[in-house]
């Protein structure tokens, strides 16, 4: 503002008008950085050590944490590194859920495995989940009897629906080879009526190879109830779980140069564990050193590359599947109606 003007002649001088100053809010105090709050999860279950090697993989002080519960039957977990979340199926409820640290669980995809309009029971939803090389979700869809890929716009693209013009039973679990070929199992669990379902088109329950070209190759039809599937780290061995109460085993096969398999043999016989313990051979994952973390009677059986049972992660309920996540050392379990995890001293392949 300019200075006040001087008055003419002998008039007394006027005082300058006071300046109008806009009120200022007091400067805020420097915000204190909030310390991150680690959520405490309830712990449960137990670690059953059979061999000292088990302690080198899972320290005895580590505990199984329950992250979420209330599901009908949790299955098929897979870690999504882009979002830092875990995706998993609730098969009877036909939903894929997403779990995130400090956020919790939300619906991610519905319907996940059965997109028809006829009301049906049984196990209609998605089961095994994986990610392709582009990070897209690939699902085993029980109700739609196919393997499908979830696109960015939300559409589901069928990848495999038929073997020799006959519908699959209900694809259950799947794993990618590093060359882009997809291996999957096809038991009858998603059919209403199982093996006796009128809708069952195939007289066997198979293990298949879906080549990048789209060709579907039957690898074996000799397993009664093929279920979980995984590769050894060098991809020279393919493991397949057989969830048959009469013959609960994990099979191992040599992988040939053309991607097919040979020399099938029993890698681990879970029959001696079945009495009094919940669960059958189901989903499985392998660590970087070739140890197999295979669900079975009593929880997750930790097996050496030679098939020696080192110990068990036992949540006290039937355990369907497991997956590596986080920095690769966290093992997530879908155990009956809950999602849980345990920290390990090893890592999954690819982390």
Write a brief caption for the model.
The protein is an all-beta fold. Helices cover 3% and strands 42% of the residues. A hairpin with a 2-residue loop joins strand 27 and strand 28.
Question: How large, in whole angstroms, is the Cα Rg?
Answer: 29 Å
CATH class: Mainly Beta
Biggest sheet record: 5 strands, antiparallel
Spatial sequence of strands, sheet with the most strands: 1-3-28-27-26
CATH architecture: 6 Propeller
Strand-residue fraction?
35-45%
The sequence of SSEs as H and E is EEHEEEEEEEEEEEEEEEEEEEHEEEEEEE
Low-confidence stretches: 1-36
- Annotated CATH topology: Neuraminidase
Question: N-to-C terminal Cα separation, in Å?
Answer: 67 Å
Q: Helices and strands: which structural class?
A: mainly beta
Count of individual domains: 1
- What value does the average pLDDT take? 91
Q: Percentage of helical residues? A: under 10%
| Full CATH superfamily name | TolB, C-terminal domain
Identify the overall geometry. Answer: globular
């Amino acid at each position: 503002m300019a200075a006040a003007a001087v008055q003419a002649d002998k008039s007394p001088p006027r005082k300058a008008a006071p300046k109008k100053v806009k009120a200022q809010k007091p400067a805020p105090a420097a915000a204190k950085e909030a310390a991150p709050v680690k959520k405490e999860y309830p712990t449960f279950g137990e670690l059953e050590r059979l061999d000292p090697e088990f302690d080198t993989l899972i320290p005895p002080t580590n505990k199984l944490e329950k992250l979420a519960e209330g599901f009908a039957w949790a299955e098929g977990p897979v870690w999504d590194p882009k979002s830092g979340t875990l995706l998993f199926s609730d098969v009877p409820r036909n939903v894929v859920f997403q779990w995130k640290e400090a956020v919790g669980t939300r619906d991610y995809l519905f319907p996940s495995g059965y997109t028809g309009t006829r009301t049906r029971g049984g196990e209609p939803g998605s089961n095994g989940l994986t990610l392709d090389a582009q990070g897209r979700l690939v699902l085993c869809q029980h109700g739609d009897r196919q393997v499908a890929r979830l696109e960015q716009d939300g559409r589901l693209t069928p990848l495999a629906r038929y073997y020799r013009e006959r519908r699959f039973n209900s694809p259950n679990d799947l794993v990618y080879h590093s060359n882009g070929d997809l291996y999957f199992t096809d038991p009858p669990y998603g059919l209403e009526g199982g093996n006796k379902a009128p809708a069952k088109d195939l007289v066997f329950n198979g293990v298949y190879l879906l080549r990048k070209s789209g060709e579907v190759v039957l690898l074996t039809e000799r397993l009664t109830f093929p279920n979980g599937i995984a590769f050894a780290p060098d991809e020279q061995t393919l493991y397949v779980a057989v969830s048959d109460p009469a013959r609960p085993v994990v099979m191992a096969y040599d992988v040939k140069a053309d991607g097919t398999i040979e020399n099938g043999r029993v890698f681990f016989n879970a029959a001696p564990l079945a009495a009094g313990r919940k669960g059958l051979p189901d989903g499985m994952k392998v660590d970087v050193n070739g140890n197999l973390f295979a669900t079975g009677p009593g929880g997750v059986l930790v097996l050496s590359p030679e098939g020696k049972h080192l110990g068990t992660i036992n949540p006290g309920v039937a355990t369907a599947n497991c997956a590596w996540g986080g920095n690769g050392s966290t093992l997530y379990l879908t155990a009956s109606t809950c999602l849980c995890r345990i920290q390990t001293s090893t890592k999954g392949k690819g982390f």
